[in-house]
Amino acid sequence: MAAIWDLPDFDSHEAVHVFDDLATGLKAVIAVHSTHLGPAAGGTRFWHYGNSQAAITDALRLSRGMSYKNAMAGLSAGGGKAVILADSQHTKPQDMLNAFARAVDSLGGQYITAQDVGMSEADMVSLSKVTPHVAGLPDQGGDPGPYTARGVFLGVQAAVKHVSGADDMTGVHVAIQGVGSVGGGLARYLAAQGAKLTLADVDAQRAADLAAELGGSSVPADAIMGVEADIFSPCALGAILTEASVAALKVRAVAGGANNQLATGPEGQMLADRGILYAPDYVINAGGIINVLRHVENADDAEINRRIDAIPGRLSAIWAQSDSTGMTPAEVADNMAQKLIGR
Ligand code: NAD
Q1: Which of 11, 23, 177, 270 sits at 20 to 30 Å (Cα–Cα) from 278?
Q2: Which of 75, 202, 311 to mutate to test the pocket of ligand 1 (most atoms within 8 A of CB)?
Q3: Distance between CA 21 and CA 317 in Å, rounded?
Q4: Cα separations in angstroms, 341 against 33, 37, 40, 64, 125
Q5: Are residues 199 and 282 in the same domain?
C-alpha cells in the first residue's frame, strides 16, 4: 500500500485520522481536507468496503468534495468526511457508534459530522449524546432533500436562462433521472412553473406515479439519458456522465443534484465540446448542506433562503467565466473553490 501522501486523492489533506478501537471493533477514517474557512464539515458514511485502501480513498475524495462544496456555498466551514468500515453484514452495534462519537469528539471540533449513506437519523442522535460536534439533527431542520431540491430548481432555471435567454419555464422540457427526495422535489417545482417533465427511476412505478400526478411522462431508467429535452437533470447516482453517455445526450444543459456526476473528469470537456452547458454538481446541490449547517452557522430561515437563492448567481458567474476563458464550468468552479480555501 502506498504511503498516504502518495495516494492520488491525497491532495494535501490537513489531516487524516485513522481509528481502530479494539474493544468495539470500530474501524474508521476521518479525513480533514481543509479548515481554512472553518471547522471541517461533512457526513459520516457507514459502508462495507472491499479493502481498507478503498475506504481511505473514499474518505479523501469525499472530504475534498466537501471543502469545495462548503466554500462555494459561502459557508464558514471547511471540508471533511468520515467513513466507518462496516462488515459485510453492516453490523452496527451501539458501543461501536459510541466509540465513533468519541473519535469525533477527540478532534475537539476540528471535524463536524452529519448524516450520510448508511447512517440513520437515530444514529446521528445517538452520536450527539456523546459529542456536540454533530450537525443536521432532526430538531435542527431535518431532511436536507427539500433544500437541495430548491437549489437545484433555481439552478435549472439559471441554466435555461443561460442557454436560451428565457425567464419562463413554461414548456421547457426537463428529463429527470431519479425521483427520490431531490429529483421528486425538483419535479414538483418544475411542474408548478409549467415545465414539461420526463421522469425515470429504477423504481419504475415511482416515476410513473409522479408523472401521472404532475402531468408528465415516464421512461425506463436506462432510457432517460437519451431523451431529447432542454435539460437533463441527474438526481440519482454519481459517475453517470461517461464518454458514452455524454455522446448520447440530446439536451442543451446538464443540471442536477447528484454528487460526483463526471465519471472521471474529462467528461466536462466532452460536454463543452458538444455545446452542452454543465452546472457543476457541488455548486448546484449545496442547498442541503446550507441547511444542515444552520446551527453551526447560526443562520435563521431567512438566511438559509438567501444562501440558497445565491446558487443561480454563482452558477451564472461560473458560466460567464467559462465563456470568456474557454475553461469548462467544472474547471472554473474548481479554481474558484481552490482560491476560496487558500490553495
Ligand atoms: P433518494 O434515495 O431519495 O432518491 C434517489 C432516487 O434515485 C431513488 O428513487 C432511486 O430509486 C433512484 N435511482 C437510483 N438509481 C437509479 C438509476 N440508475 N436510474 C434512475 N433512478 C435511480 O436520494 P436523494 O436524497 O434524492 O439524492 C439523490 C442524489 O443527490 C444522490 O446522488 C445524492 O448523493 C445527491 N445529493 C442529495 C442531497 C440531499 O440533500 N438529499 C444533497 C446533495 C446531493
Answers
A1: 11
A2: 202
A3: 47
A4: 10, 7, 12, 11, 30
A5: yes
Q: How far is the CA of 181 from the centre of ligand 1 (A)?
A: 7
Q: Where residue 303 sits, what CATH number does that domain have?
A: 3.40.50.720
Q: Report yes or no on 140 lying in a domain.
A: no
pLDDT for 282-331, tens place per residue?
999 999 999 999 998 999 999 999 999 999 999 999 999 999 999 999 99
Summarised one tens digit per residue, pLDDT across range 163-208 is 999 999 999 999 999 999 999 999 999 999 999 999 999 999 999 9
Reduced to 3 states, what is the DSSP secondary structure of residue 45? Answer: strand
Pick the closest to residue 31 from 80, 65, 66, 77 (CA basis): 80
- Give the pLDDT confidence score for residue 142 in this predicted structure: 73
pLDDT band at 211; cut points 50, 70, 90 = very high
175 and 227 fall within a common domain: yes
Q: Is 81 a catalytic residue?
A: yes
What are the tens digits of pLDDT across the range 105-114?
Answer: 999 999 999 9
178/318 same-domain check: yes
Pocket of ligand 1 (CB under 6 A): 144-145, 148, 177-183, 200-203, 206, 221, 235-238, 257-259, 285, 288
Residue of 27, 69, 81, 196 with catalytic role: 81
Q: Is the pLDDT of residue 342 over 80?
A: yes
Measured from the Cα of 256, ligand 1's closest atom is 30
Three-class secondary structure of residue 3 per DSSP: coil
Query: H helices within the chain, ranges in order?
Result: 52-72, 94-106, 121-128, 145-164, 181-192, 204-214, 243-248, 267-273, 281-284, 287-292, 294-297, 301-309, 311-325, 329-340
Q: What is the number of structural domains in the chain? A: 2
Segments forming the whole domain that contains residue 27:
4-135
Domain identity same for 26 and 79 = yes
Same domain, 325 and 209: yes
- The number of beta carbons lying within 10 Å of the beta carbon of residue 242 is 15
> Do residue 152 and residue 40 come from a single domain?
no
